[in-house]
Every structure is written in structure tokens, then in C-alpha cells.
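Subject: design request, 559 residues
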């Protein structure tokens, strides 16, 4: 591993002297460098194998992971390998993508930043990984008979995570991957000679037509077998045209297919030890293996990135609603613990469902995401267009009005300037995507749910003290204030690809942006006040004064 600027500061063997000084300094939460100090300080991610029932359970087990190249899949592979050096072979189903062979993708995959810390602990971890070609959009997952037979003969545990998580995914593709793909995995599981357990990762919002979601099965929107036959009997363009009528109460194709698939799992898992995990909105890690790590820009993370870069200024949501976020490493720890309990209990006549949310234990609200403004202004970034500021409103027409002034008009002005300088216009297209994203998320930002949590609570209480430390998923132990302290730094390094080497320069850039912003605001406010007093067109300046007052007095950094 080279210590150069292509590697995030957090993963380097040596860091710049000024950052080393911050890392070992003493800071309070009000200090400018406090968040950097928290981000860089040593992070113990070792797993105590002695006395761990879960580690002992994993020893010698051959494991199949679907969706391994995705956000949660990477974390699951990393944690399994870090938890148990004596684990058996981990099989990954990987497809060819954009002209890259699946084997080359596996090699590149194992060089991902997420495995850097594992490399120090377990240098030979790659020997445990075996890639197998498969594509969930193909019949029979596109797997060769030879590969299939290998899995049938060897696999002990299956973690089925693979899914298309796009809310606006076309219905035929969502059915093919989420429903048919799971059906094929269950068929494979029932053939496996040494299978001990099957974990299906669903979502806490699969049944979001209910306000109270219990750890139980609900009647499916449509029969899963009829849905699968739909793909065989009708062309995809016709299915897409009738999609709105098929979705019914479901807010999107993701929730629709996940809810139907749960019923499919119930029907097809007879004879195997099976459970369903239902995490809520998954965001960056809390601790393992890297604080605040993510490689996904879906959901709230995408909104926060937009706000940090000075693109997103107004969001349509009820800020006092619970947003039910859960850190990704907690989700993975919970997933592994679920598999352990399912195999330990040995029940084939029942499928346990484990809701995993923050609502009951440690709620967070949409207004809490405004903390990105607090820390973003302290960090600075050359990717930031203007000083970050973002507000929430639940009033739709007020949202449209503010969106027009803070998103639409600036995008046209800036794109016009880019065209005049011979550059390609970018901002209007970006705002179209942001607006679409907010619309897709609005069902979740404008509503809230309650969740039953009994199975997850029982699971936690049954773990030994060693396993509670090794596989922590206790939401009560999470401090949201500390969580968001390092959140933006990791996004800056791993998503925006802007390392901390330029910290001082980027802070000066942010200071310049602040000065420009306040000059503009002061000029607009002074001009508006003058016009309000001295002209009959009072409604025009009153509009600008109202907007400025709204943004000034609706700031809320409290969780």
C-alpha cells in the first residue's frame, strides 16, 4: 500500500505533519479541528475470537454471498474474514460488467479501500475468496452447471443480499432481479447438501402500506408466482406501461418487489433453516472497518452530498418526522447474528423475521441531517460551489417556490455562464436529477412508521458479552452527534475523492464562498428593504425578505 495522495489520509501509514498534530491533539466539540481529530484517531476493529460463540459458529463454514460487490456485500465479506481467520471459502456471485470479465472484477474488487485495514490484520485473506459467474437478469442466474454443482456440494450458509435498490427501477428488471433471482437462490439452497442456514435481506419498508410493521408476514400485493409468470407471458414494455396499476399501495418498485419476495421466501423455504432480516434506511458505517465509510450515494447520503457541495438548499420533508437511519456496520453485525441464531435454533417449521431500525431504540429526525451545514462549513471543500445551507419544509407549494429561487434560477444563470466560456452546461441537468431524487424519496420523508422489534431484542439479549462487543448492533449505544462528526470527512475522502492534504486551502476557499454569500445576502436584503419602504411594489422585496428570514430562523442543528 503506497502512501501517496491517491489514498485517503485515513488509510495511510504516515500522514502530513499538520494532520498528525491534530490527530494527537486535545480538542473540544467546539474547536474547528474537533471533527478531524475524531476522524483520524485510532480505531480498534479487532475481533476477540476466544469465547465468541459466533466466531466458533463461522469456523470452517463455506459461505455464499450474493450482492457481494454492492455496498453491504463488501462490508459483509470484510467482517466475515476479519471475524474468523479459520472460516472456509467465501463464494461470490459476480457478473461481467461494461466489458470487464467477472474474474477481473473480483481481483479489482479485492483491492477496494474497504479491505485495506483487513490486509494489515490478515494479509492472505484473498485466498479465501472464490468468484463464480452469475447474473440475476439471466435465466437460472446464468450460472454454469459446474459452478452450480460446486456450490451444491460445498456451501453451508447463504447470505442473499443481491437486489436492485433503485426506487425508480423499471418494474420488469426489479421483478427479474428481486423476485425471480430470489426464487432461483431458494431453489439452489434446497439442493445444497451441507446447507445450515439461509438469510434473506429484505427491507423494513417492504410493508410500508402499514403504519405499524410487525415481525411477521403480510399478505402480498400480488401473488409472486403470477408476477414471475408475467415476465414470461408479456413483453417488458407492456409490463412497464401497466406498472402503476400493478404497484397499487406500494410507493415504488423496490418496496413492491421486496414485499412480494418475502411471501415467496415463506412459500419456498420449506425444509431449510431460513430467516428474513429487515433493515431500515442504511447509511454509512459507524465504526467498522472505517468510520463513516460508504461507497453508495443513494438515499439520504446522496442528499447530504448535494447539501455539502452547495447544490441542495431546500428539501421536501417533515423535519420532525423520524427518518429511521441505521449504520451499515450495525446492519452487517445484525445479519451475521441472525444467521447464527437461525442455525442454532434449528427450526425448519418457522421463519423468524428480524426488524432492524432505530425508531424504538435511538430515533433520529430529518432535521438532524442539517448538521451537514454545521460541519461542512468547518471543513471546507473545493467541490463546494457556495456556502452550504439547507432547510426542510413540509409545505409543497412553499417547497416549489424556494426550489425555483434556489435551484432553478441559479442553474440557468451558471449554465449560461459556462456556455459563454465555451464549457458544457452541467448544473441544470444536475438539478433535474436532484429534484427527481427528492420526489422519489418524498414518500419516506413525509411519512413515518413504527416497528415491532421483539425478535431483534431477544437476539441481542441472548448474545454473550464477547459477541455483543464483536458484533455490536445495539442502536442504544450509538451517539448520533459523534456519528455525524466524522460523517462528512469520510464522504469527502471516499466519495468526493478530495483528501485532507488540501485542508487549509479548502478552508480558505470556503471562507471566500462565505464572504461572497453574505455580500449577496446583505445586498439583496438592503435593496429589498429600501424598495419595500420607498416603492409601491412592496410585494417583490417582501418576497426576498421572507426567504432570507426563513433561512435565517429555521436553522436547526439539534438531533
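Subject: RE: design request

Done. Sequence follows.
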Amino acid at each position: 500500500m503506497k502512501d501517496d495522495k491517491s489514498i485517503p489520509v485515513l488509510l495511510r501509514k504516515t500522514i502530513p505533519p499538520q494532520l498528525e498534530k491534530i490527530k494527537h491533539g486535545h480538542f473540544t466539540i467546539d474547536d474547528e479541528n474537533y471533527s478531524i481529530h475524531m476522524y483520524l484517531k485510532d480505531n480498534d476493529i479487532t475481533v476477540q475470537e476466544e469465547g465468541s460463540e459466533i466466531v466458533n459458529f463461522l469456523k470452517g463454514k463455506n459461505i455464499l454471498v450474493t450482492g457481494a460487490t454492492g455496498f453491504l456485500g463488501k462490508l459483509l465479506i470484510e467482517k466475515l474474514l476479519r471475524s474468523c481467520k479459520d472460516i472456509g471459502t467465501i463464494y461470490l456471485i459476480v457478473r461481467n460488467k461494461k466489458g470487464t470479465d467477472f474474474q477481473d472484477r473480483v481481483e479489482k474488487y479485492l483491492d477496494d479501500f474497504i479491505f485495506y485495514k483487513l490486509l494489515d490484520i490478515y494479509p492472505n485473506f484473498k485466498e479465501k475468496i472464490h468468484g463464480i459467474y452469475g447474473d440475476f437478469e439471466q435465466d437460472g442466474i446464468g450460472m454454469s452447471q459446474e459452478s452450480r454443482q460446486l456450490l451444491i456440494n460445498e456451501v453451508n450458509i447463504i447470505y442473499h443480499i443481491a437486489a436492485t435498490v433503485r426506487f425508480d427501477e423499471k418494474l420488469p428488471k426489479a421483478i427479474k432481479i428481486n423476485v425471480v433471482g430470489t426464487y432461483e437462490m431458494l431453489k439452489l439452497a434446497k439442493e445444497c447438501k451441507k446447507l445450515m442456514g439461509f438469510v434473506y435481506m429484505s427491507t423494513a419498508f417492504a410493508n410500508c402500506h402499514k403504519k405499524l410493521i410487525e415481525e411477521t408476514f403480510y399478505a402480498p400485493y400480488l401473488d409472486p408466482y403470477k408476477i414471475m409468470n408475467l415476465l414470461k407471458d408479456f413483453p417488458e414494455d407492456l409490463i412497464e406501461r401497466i406498472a402503476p396499476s400493478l404497484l397499487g399501495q406500494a410507493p415504488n418498485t423496490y418496496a413492491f418487489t421486496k414485499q412480494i419476495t418475502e411471501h415467496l421466501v415463506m412459500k419456498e423455504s420449506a425444509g431449510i433453516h431460513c430467516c428474513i432480516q429487515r433493515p431500515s434506511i442504511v447509511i454509512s458505517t459507524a465504526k467498522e472497518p472505517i468510520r463513516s465509510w460508504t461507497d453508495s450515494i443513494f438515499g439520504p447520503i446522496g442528499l447530504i452530498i448535494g447539501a455539502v457541495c452547495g447544490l441542495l438548499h431546500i428539501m421536501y420533508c417533515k423535519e420532525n418526522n423520524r427518518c429511521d437511519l441505521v449504520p451499515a456496520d450495525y446492519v452487517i453485525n445484525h445479519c451475521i447474528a441472525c444467521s447464527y441464531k437461525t442455525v442454532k435454533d434449528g427450526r425448519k417449521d418457522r421463519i423468524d423475521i428480524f426488524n432492524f431500525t432505530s425508531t424504538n431504540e435511538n430515533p433520529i429526525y430529518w432535521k438532524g441531517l442539517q448538521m451537514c451545514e454545521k460541519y461542512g462549513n468547518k471543513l471546507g471543500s473545493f467541490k463546494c460551489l457556495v456556502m452550504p445551507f439547507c432547510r426542510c419544509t413540509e409545505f409543497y407549494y412553499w417547497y416549489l417556490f424556494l426550489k425555483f429561487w434556489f435551484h432553478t434560477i441559479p442553474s440557468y444563470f451558471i449554465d449560461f455562464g459556462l456556455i459563454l466560456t465555451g464549457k458544457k452546461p452541467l448544473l441544470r441537468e444536475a438539478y433535474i436529477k436532484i429534484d427527481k431524487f427528492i420526489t422519489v424519496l418524498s414518500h419516506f420523508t413525509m411519512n413515518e412508521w413504527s416497528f415491532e422489534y421483539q425478535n431483534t431484542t431477544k437476539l441481542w439479549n441472548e448474545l454473550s458479552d464477547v459477541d455483543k462487543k464483536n458484533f455490536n448492533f445495539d442502536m442504544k449505544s450509538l451517539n448520533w452527534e459523534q456519528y455525524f462528526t466524522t460523517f462528512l470527512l469520510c464522504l469527502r475522502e471516499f466519495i468526493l475523492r478530495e483528501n485532507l492534504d488540501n485542508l487549509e486551502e479548502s478552508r480558505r476557499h470556503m471562507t471566500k464562498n462565505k464572504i461572497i454569500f453574505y455580500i449577496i445576502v446583505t445586498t439583496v436584503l438592503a435593496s429589498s428593504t429600501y424598495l419595500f419602504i420607498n416603492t409601491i411594489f412592496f410585494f417583490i422585496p417582501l418576497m426576498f425578505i421572507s426567504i432570507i428570514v426563513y433561512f435565517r430562523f429555521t436553522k436547526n442543528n439539534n438531533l
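The CA atoms of residues 176 and 509 lie 47 Å apart.
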